[in-house]
Here is the input.
Amino acid sequence: MSDGQGAAIKVIDAFDLDDELRSLLKPGEMVLDDRKRRHRLPRYFYEVPSHEAAQAIRLTQHFGLNEFILVDLRETERLQQFPRYIPCAVRVLAFYLEQFRAAAGASVHVAVNGGYRSPMHKMSTHATPHMWGTAADIYRIGSTILKTKETIEKYNELAEDVAEEIDVYPYGHVTGNTADDHVHLDLGYITVVPREISEDRMEVPQEAKPRFAFEERRRKERRSAAESGAAAFRPPPAG
Ligand SMILES: [Zn+2]
Here is the structure.
């Protein structure tokens, strides 16, 4: 599979997870957004084995996986235990956040509960891209805490200028579609089918042995691993 030098992230089909996890993550289920449109929840997730792994795995140069799974008691207890799961589309989000960071010229900080939120999260009252791993609530940029109309509108505009795909919540006090203490940006309801996964299975729990894949390492990661000589992660033997 890989050269075995580490940093491979495990990709799973959520239909292979146990009954409890499936009932919490709801792969493939339809949920309504605040305008009664239906959206299908993601099916393919990264499996994060430990807190240390979450901290070590980088999605882009400046964004680590851990930044997108920070939650408090509003997330269901089981989903706060490792291994944890996050939709594979989070990689796309990290890419756009990296562009946003460059445009802002400062570090971008995702809030607690501001990355991935499961369908069971108390803030998941209707479909929002947070449940797809494609939204981020940003509470601080550089040393600026985002809590004034002026700063939120400034960075909202900057985010919208980064790419047409980015949507933001306007400044306002109605939770869910406006924001007055953070910048919410999202990419909509993107689901990702990782190239390492085969899509030959039904959308039902599988009788046969679960299958999974390890994301093939990116060229850049291979290069930096070779340079540092460090192997952050070594996948366990398959099977
Ligand atoms: Zn948000």
